[in-house]
Structure prediction request, 468 residues.
Amino acid sequence: MEAAGAHAEATLKTLLGTFVDRSDNEWVPEIQGYHAIWDAFDLKGSSNSDLFEHLEWTLATWERFWDIHMEVTIPYVVAPSMFHDLYVDLFGGDRDLEAYKLLQGIDNTSLVAGRALWALSQKAKADSDLATLIRDTDASQVMSALENSEKGRAFISVIQEFLEGYGKRSDTVTEMADPSWLEEPKTAIELLKNYMRDSARDPDIRWRELIVERDQLVAEAREKLASYPDPVKQQFEMSLPLGQQGHRIQEDHNWWLDQNGLHRIRRLFLEIGNRFTAAGAIADSSDIFYLTIDEIRADADAGFAVDRKDQISAEKANLERWSGRAAPPWVGTDYGPPPDNPVGAAIGKFFGNPPRPPSEEHPDLLGGTPGSPGKITGIPRVIINLKDAGKLDEGEILVTATTSPPWTPLFGTAGGIVTDTGGALSHCAIVAREDDIPAVVGTGMATAIIADGQTIEVDGATGDVRLL
Prediction:
């Protein structure tokens, strides 16, 4: 571990100065080129041989995606972590979360998607009939309800345009079996309804406030550094933009790789599923996700003649049985805390401190990692899947396992957030700070202990969640 850490640190020093340029000018264009190949391939019109040749290319490309993912992930986590450590070292340990405020307000794909959703909500609100229909109809039924009028059908086109641009993502980000918003728009409609509330605030206003706050803190830091030696100033000026761009690339890489990439791969597997279904090998195209790649290849070579329906039924029952079991904290060997080097420190900030479960002395106290400062007492709403976003009322405390970029619009509704996983550099903590709402992350068990409707107190500065 020590030797690997030394090698990683040496490599990282070279990579940190180049990862922003490589992301913007090398990796993202490469990924977009793969997107273009997927989009140009005629899934329905292709022969079986062409389709399965395309599958082999896709599997190799998906492996390449994850090479890029890991190459960019380490620097985008390490850069903000190193800036945080430098800031705290220079200005004091009581400024732990303040350091991240100097990294906020950098535009990214999640913010762009949020603005587009806000613009869509304002178009809907501008017409009282449309607004009433959308507000009063269950999110799963909105699209069919809009079909009943000419005005509604016109607005469906507007929604479809939004989904074509921003709906190629699913609630869970990395689960291929989950449909994208473009396929099933219920989640997008739930978020649209949230933005249509009278109390909802234009996310662009908050973003501009973040920029003002960031620039002020950066100016104050430079004033304090005026009398410091030049090498210290240079280190600050080098670390600051890398940390800022690290936050941006954390969102952007997820957009291009995990969300848009997975959507396109899912479409390929669904077409393969259509051919298995037509041959009677499986009952539904989505059942293809219960087969392994080797089974899919072998069955295709055999002309889809193998009946997999009983096997898939058993797999579904197995999945259902295990879905009710609590996962262990880890699988394999626990080797203890990560090594004391920049990568180890960043990993610690990404995954967070060890949870602090309730004790005999404090049975009402659940502890995690401070994610975003502030304190709130309120009603929690436990939401595991984003399609249940409509359960969250204005100002309630969102309690969930974790969040990812598709969850970002929900932060404008929540009064506070508590998660099972994550640290100060997790998606949830970063977005909660940018939305100025208290967050405690990495509690380990919030979704199991906290119940809808009880009252809790969340202290984002201490990492304490008190069950009242």
Notes: The chain has a mean pLDDT of 93. The two ends are 44 Å apart (CA to CA). Residues 230-278 form the longest helix (49 residues).
